[in-house]
Amino acid sequence: MLRRTKIMMVCVFLALCGSAWAVDANDPSLVSHWKFDESAGTIANDSVGSNHGTLVNGPTWTTGQIDGALNLDGVNDYVDVGDPPNGSLDFGAGDSFTISLWFKRASTGQHHCLVSKRKVSSGTHYEGYSWKVSANNKLYFGIEDTGGRNVFIEGNTAVTDGGWHHAAVVRDVSQDKVYFYLDGESDANAVADPTITTLANGVKFWIGRWHYYNLYFNGAVDDVRVYDRALSAEEIRQLYLKEIRELVGLEIVGPNDVPDNNSVQYTAMAIYDDNSTEDVTIEASWTVDANGSAVIDADGLLTTGQLETLEVPIVISAEYVEEDVNVVGEKEVVVYADCTIAELVCRNISSAVEVKQDALRAIEEALEKEIRALALLDDYSADESLSSLGKRELSRAKRTTASAIRKQMSCADYVNQSVEQMQSVRMTIGCEPNSPQ
Fold it and tell me: Quick check: 217 and 72 in contact, CB under 8 A?
């Protein structure tokens, strides 16, 4: 077996970029997304829908976890989104949903509402949902259907450090469970969801204010999202990580040496500034510079062809885009002939014979046409209307054509002799007589 063993350098191109990310606009389950990046005015725009919010009682724009955010005073500031007529923020008995956001508390030991769309009458809770930080500094979420069936879930972690935190709550009707996440990790045991009728109501969706007791949030909120499906634990983790880390590079992982006539899987690993990595093989765009000796598909599967030389160097490239951050990775790989020298000789002889046989077929086709042309020239020279000058020119053309035919016939003889000689060499070294290697 021929194999050149050497370690090739792994080329990783690091594209140092500014921190930037945004929601995936192609995710149809994201029904509303308030980024709070406006920095001025009294409207908080829904970047994916029409559920724009109105700032009430003077919330102020501030710096957030991701670009801008909204600062609420805990007294009477909040965002009024209203009750969307299309019902996009209401959920039926069979509707899963996810709410996620970033928050930073300015004080502790008090009830601070994050999000609420909860019907209240005479101090009694009715259908809807609400989310707050309780006086014990833990996250608390509740839902109730039109029949009064409800579920409440409380987080395990007391949030008192005054820093930014990511939180998410998930209602998964396929599991009849409600889940809680803090900073990308589960923060409570899932609780059973006993609701069986709709949560829909006619009340407004508020950010920073609770319908019950008019509790307000004291601190900053950023990047509030509502999905009409249950995000998985991994999706929640990725949502959190994408908001705190920066994509800086891409590495292609796989063997440095690959045999011909084979398939090998390569992996694209995104590199982040916190030294974490993610497999983005499927999302990356793959190419290979291989001079025809290999191809690579959209999923990073490299397929090598049959070589006629000992080895061929190739370069595999992958490009990955995460929002507006673009990184490229390259890897030098050697494709080697996975055969004996004798087999490699046979491959070259077989290819040479095939080329020569193709040439012979081309010569034979050309000879046929030239002989036909010579016969037509004979017919043409018999034309009595031709002048003596014209006849002399035709005679010269016939001689030239005949000469070309003789030369091509001689060339065909030489090529035939060459083919026979190479076939003899193939037999001498034991190549397969009829099929190329």
Answer: yes
Q: Which residues of 37-49 are buried (b: 16+ CB within 10 A; e: fewer)?
A: beeeeeebbbbbb
Query: Tens digit of pLDDT for each residue in 288-321?
Result: 999 899 999 999 999 999 998 999 999 999 999 9
DSSP string over 360-378: HHHHHHHHHHHHHHHHHHH
Segments making up each domain of the chain, as ranges: 30-244, 246-336, 346-429
Element housing 235 (H / E): helix 233-244
Give the pLDDT band of residue 126 (cuts 50, 70, 90). Answer: confident
* CATH code of the domain occupying 30-244: 2.60.120.200
* Interatomic CA distance for residues 121 and 110, integer angstroms: 23
Residues in a beta bridge with 54: 43, 80
CATH number of 246-336: 2.60.40.10
Same CATH topology for 30-244 and 246-336? Answer: no
Each residue's pLDDT tens digit, 54-90: 999 999 999 999 899 999 999 999 999 999 999 999 9
